[in-house]
Specification:
The structure is a homodimer of 508-residue chains.
Chain A lengths: L1 E6 L9 E5 H7 L6 E6 L4 E10 L9 E4 L1 H7 L6 E6 L6 H8 L6 H12 L5 H13 L4 H13 L12 E5 L9 H10 L4 E5 L9 H5 L9 H11 L1 E5 L8 H9 L7 H14 L4 E8 L8 H17 L3 E8 L7 E2 L1 H12 L5 H17 L5 H10 L2 H12 L13 E6 L4 E6 L1 H10 L9 E4 L6 E2 L4 E7 L2 H13 L3 E4 L12 E3 L1
Parallel strand pairs in A: 1-5, 2-4, 7-10, 8-9, 10-11
Antiparallel strand pairs in A: 1-6, 2-5, 3-4, 3-6, 11-19, 12-15, 13-17, 14-16, 14-18, 15-17
Helix pairs in contact in A: 3-5, 4-6, 5-10, 6-11, 6-12, 7-14, 7-16, 9-16, 11-12, 14-15, 17-18
Chain lengths: 508, 508
Amino acid sequence: MKLRVRDVDLSAGGNLVVIISRADASLLDAFAGDRVLVKNSAARKETTAVIDIDVENKRIKKGEIGIFEELLRLLEVKDKDLVDVTYTGHPKSLQYIKDKLDGKRLSESQIREIVNDIVKNKFSDKELTYFVSGCYTKELSLKEAAYLTKAIVDSGNKLFFKAKFVLDKHCVGGIPNNRTTMIVTPIIASLGYIMPKTSSRSITSPAGTADTMEVLAPVDLSHNKISDVIKKSNACIVWGGSMNLAAADDYLIRVRHPLSLDPEGMLLASILAKKKAVGATHVMIDIPYGYQSKFSSFKEAKKIGRKFVALGKLLKMKVRVVYTDGSQPVGRGIGPTLEATDVLSVLKGGGPKDLREKSIFLATEMLKMIGVKHAEDKVLDSLDTGKAYKKFLQIVELQGGKRKITLQYAKYSKEIKSKKTGHVIIINNKGISKIARIAGAPEDKAAGLYLRAKKGEIVKKGQVLFTVYSESKEKLESALKAVSDSETFVIGNLPKSYFNRFNLFKRN
Amino acid sequence: MKLRVRDVDLSAGGNLVVIISRADASLLDAFAGDRVLVKNSAARKETTAVIDIDVENKRIKKGEIGIFEELLRLLEVKDKDLVDVTYTGHPKSLQYIKDKLDGKRLSESQIREIVNDIVKNKFSDKELTYFVSGCYTKELSLKEAAYLTKAIVDSGNKLFFKAKFVLDKHCVGGIPNNRTTMIVTPIIASLGYIMPKTSSRSITSPAGTADTMEVLAPVDLSHNKISDVIKKSNACIVWGGSMNLAAADDYLIRVRHPLSLDPEGMLLASILAKKKAVGATHVMIDIPYGYQSKFSSFKEAKKIGRKFVALGKLLKMKVRVVYTDGSQPVGRGIGPTLEATDVLSVLKGGGPKDLREKSIFLATEMLKMIGVKHAEDKVLDSLDTGKAYKKFLQIVELQGGKRKITLQYAKYSKEIKSKKTGHVIIINNKGISKIARIAGAPEDKAAGLYLRAKKGEIVKKGQVLFTVYSESKEKLESALKAVSDSETFVIGNLPKSYFNRFNLFKRN
């Protein structure tokens, strides 16, 4: 059926939805939630979309099709153009989703078909939610997780290297700052090893590694450009999304969000797919645990750690896991520019002690994985002689940033002071993140906050605990309101031994 | 935060969604999918809504809130009005949904809270989908199903009667036509018993009982009007939706649709809640089974049948189950007016044999449930002396229809003829329904088709199998295309004994 495009002048938030009149829905024998194939023959563009029915015929009349921003662009159509619409029925793989809910094991080809249909937008959010539910309640076997990983890898672009060792790392779980990637990558690269690092942008945090790197250089590079940067410098620090790596994964993340539902097999597949796609041979997984972390005990963290190693084997990647302290932010800045400040300080030989120590630990363990002797000495040498910093500046420049770095700080700021004297017992990770976000991070690069005290330190009444930064008075005020609404710092008196009982880093 | 309403001039298909700018989302620290409370203080109206973010700021600017048709009406606001928007966080009951996915048993108060939040629109479709998934994969115990039923009953309006017996019936599963309700109800009422029948409109079929009854009388009556009709005639045949019975159920049905996922406990709760809400004491459940039915074997049908009886006990209702032939349409007309034709014929003492026999069987079994002696004789007497027909006309008139019934038939029609001679072995229920829908049913009351042959009958080459009716040439053509695309009748030669091996009706 030919229908005339109505630009509904809205974006649909990622869903490919079209709106048709009840009369046309009836002719197609289609219901809300069913799928149609929409074709723009002139530009040879087509896509599957889920239909919504304008029951009240308020805006979409018979003969018209309401199209949202995303789809207009995809189909290269504009208001009043004609498109061809046909009913497509359910994709066959919808039955496999039902099978999974019924507890059946899926075959490699069934999982591959589901993932292909995900990328082709053939499922509605409800149907994808059913897939996530099935993987959660009936669990994925290690084999199914491997099939899923491979299918996700094949759903997007890949990188290839001839080198014997291609290194990568990943941290599971949102500890504020924790920007070790931007320090470890230039250390590894300065020692002659390849590390094609792709990172994510923030979803619910004040900054992802990609947001922080973006303060210094573009991170949204083409596939060719990335290859070129790596060829010249051994490494890159870019946004994964720009490469269209592991494309299917983004769809699944969107429906996992509402219940923070992370089916273990999907979590493993999602992470390792991105490593496999860049051609990694050796992968370091950092699992923070403890109070305020995703994994509350070492035991829990180890349970998933072992599965990373096992799945790595099936995927022919060597995986090593380290378990680290997840009880407070690592570093002191929260928000892209403030986190970049910490990273640059560490690369210049100073910076927050915990961020420096954790980065040295991770880089050392990664080098040990590939059999490098005197690994820690080499890491310290790279950092302390400025080799790592020089390498970082090279990467920044190759990605299109300026070699001479100058950071822009926020227009407005406010110091938050302690109401009593005592030890800092708890820094509330969630509260800290919320304040930084309301202050404007990550959209406003310079917004966020800077911690002037960390866990275990003694603060005096009236001493500054942290400073909030914002680009607008309104946002600063909203952030300050959030400060007074939540207990971000817990101050009290505890023996010093209390703070020593945690082992910061453990190996598997 | 105060925001200015933008009427987005679309309906959102039942979801209560609002659109805000990225800037305002950031100030609220809200993400797409989060909930806000939207208040119109002037009219004292408020509701929870799920937010979508206009990432591209294409239409919704900072300070504005995009509102769809449904919500404009609910809040009594119009374009440019000011509303108050606050972030509300997750409803507490979202954790119970996660608990269910984790296999926990839910308490009565937890289930009640989930259902209350459903009716208050506090969940997104994804979250509701997770609830359905949990009930499907981890199953509801009989107790949980009873809690769910009671909570659904209390989420809407109810009817009360002082009578000792209040009868009701329900058929599980979509057999075309099968309009026994419109025959059984006046029979029961003519014998002096109360039967407050509420029925559904079609969701995916060519007609529901409410659509068919609507050909003869309004079915969308107020609570008061319904009570009055029942008081005067012992019965009614109305649309359940108009009474806002079991309000929570409609939300759940919407998310169960995509995978045709009917968690057993939810299916039971959904059906029995509607019976409990009208005050039924004795309920007859009709479960068609066999090829083309929801339940493919008698064993499967019996399994669910027993649960209806057990759940009925927990709800203090007497439930009896009958198992019937679901292998072909019951009656001959498909589509509201054509089905009404069959109903009127049976009430006048003629009509399709299968529809008459099934109605007599059901009415007899219902009377036996409440201890009526010589039940079948009484049913036959009511039908054959015209008492049931008279009662039906009284109900039609009380509901606002005309006592003198004249049916309007469709403008266009086309006879479909057999291409060979033989027995009718299969009538494809789905194919038949699809054709009737494309012809215009149920929106066009007179559209649909009329079967001129039924299973087991011998047809000659060139003999008419069915007639398609439509109100427009375009719809008729589309329907005829669907006829040629699918095999609606399977004609072949089989011994007559083949057709006798099915027992039409079974009691539990």
